[in-house]
Amino acid sequence: MLVGHSYGGAVIGAAAAGDPAVKALVYIAAFAPDTGETLGPLNATPVKDPLPALPLQQVSTGPDSADLYVDPAAFRSVIAGDVHRTTAADMATTQEPLDAAAFSEPVAAAAWHTVPTYYLVARHDHAIAPNLERYMAARAKAHTTEVDSSHAVMVSHPAQVISVIEAAAR
Predict the structure, then answer these.
(1) With a threshold of 0.85, does the pTM exceed it?
(2) Residues with pLDDT less than 70, the chain
(3) How far apart are alpha carbons 35 and 70 in whole angstroms?
């Protein structure tokens, strides 16, 4: 079983393709791109109640590469609105960067076409529009659960995340 959060959903969908050992995919407030899709256009899919662009800061890592960070000043409101302020501040300070290329590279495969899929929608997500999460879950024919949570659902609602993972394991 593979579990992915946020852009990690693109990773698990591609990694599981063609691997008979993977018995389930679990998307936790995550992107679930189809084969050939890129995250940038997928994130711009027209849905009811779209979100504004993420407040990202770009740091050059070379002549043709850059890392992206969520602006620490906006981190709590965008990522962790239901997380204790101190914890959210720590998360903002220690966040791992995302390679900017991740938004423009097509996904090689989407295992959700053939692998049982579970999806946890974070209803108060301000990083990925909840209606986009619902769209991706429906498209993947995922067993879908919703929770009143921010994007940091595994921090603010760990029991619900564990419940979805356990359901997939069964």
Answers:
(1) yes
(2) none
(3) 27
